[in-house]
Amino acid sequence: MKRQSSLLLKGAVDVLLQCGQRAGLVLVVAEISEKSMVGQLREVSNKANHAELKLFLEVELGQLEDGDIICYQRLLQIDSSQQCRYPDVPSFLEYVHNRQVVRFRSLEKPKEDEFCLELSKLFNYDDVVERVAAHLGLDDSSKIRLTSHNCYSQQPKPQPIKYRGVEHLSDMLLHYNQTSDILYYEVLDIPLPELQGLKTLKVAFHHATKEEVVIHTIRLPKQSTVGDVINDLKSKVELSHPNAELRLLEVFYHKIYKIFPLNEKIENINDQYWTLRAEEIPEEEKNLGPHDRLIHVYHFMKDTTQNQQVQNFGEPFFLVIHEGETLAEVKVRIQKKLQVPDEEFSKWKFAFLSSVALSIFRTLTLSLVDSRRDVYGAWEQYLGLEHSDNAPKRSYAANQNRHTFEKPVKFTIRKIRQFPPLHQLHQIWVQWDVQHFGKSRRCERKEASNE
Description:
By secondary structure, this protein is an alpha+beta fold. It contains ten helices and 25 strands. The strands form five sheets. Strands 23-20-19-21-17-18-22-24-25 form a nine-stranded mixed beta sheet, with no helix packed on it.
């Protein structure tokens, strides 16, 4: 039996108010014409009386079934349509389908929502930054830099979004298989396209005689060298004397991993996870004798709650050891260098640490740990200063180690032994575990004697 009528759901769309609403149910004859349907809709809709209507159907007119939706709107005058962002039902429904409320946070305050904007997932890069700039009252939207949200760490991603580097807002909010509603923003002092042509480095300058550490932002063309960075830094810092020479170090988890050569290109230097430190080169390091040694000195303490694991902290440094120098003499120089009061320094212990062992010095003669003059890279052995960590923890700057805090590196102590004289060292294979970001890494190193 042929069905004679259908029960339809009608929706009224007010494009001037940019809203839609369910207007009720209407019973229509299955084979009704569009003109007749408009008449019925006028009768049941007070707002549409005597108005010319335009219908929008989900399916072809001859295929209407119970529950199908008919949307209608009054035809707008030209002036009215120009005032509407979405002048007809299809554009309005597309807006409803793709609209996305985005929470924006300042990159300097990554835990606080600063404002929200209703945007479309189909907006391109320019659309998004223009609306952010308009909200902030900024004339030049190219000075806005955005950073996506890491859904797993609940922090900004390490790398910001490049200028026009994504196609749509939906791409900005996507993190693997999850979608976020958070974006971080920065207001730059120069346009982002210009900034991307430069390499920006955050360098922590350690003054030779002052305790304060100042973070400097260095911007240079990507093909510049470390020597160019040092020359630029010299114009911004106060040196102990006019002829002082600077060096650039790579520090990670309170250990020195690298001294940069002056001719190294800066394009591939990463300051997101590694700390770049600049300091004056002491005069005694420039004139090393044939039997002098330059060693690494790190602060550490033992964690009694975790199987006596060694935790490094504080600022690492180099120290020149002279031939025949005793540990007592070295202690005097270290105390003077660090300006530690006598009462506190008397509690400090000195030890030789390697990847597999910790050896407390029990004699006044300081055996030289390593004979290498090359300090290009991290050493597995170092002179350790054991004492409590009384310095407050500090957070890094926004672009350096983004939104992380200092955490100690933990070395597992395989055994504790008295430090032997250097001539008794022989070739041994050592295995060591380094806990880094919660992951274990096992390597094998060969330690050769220097007889």
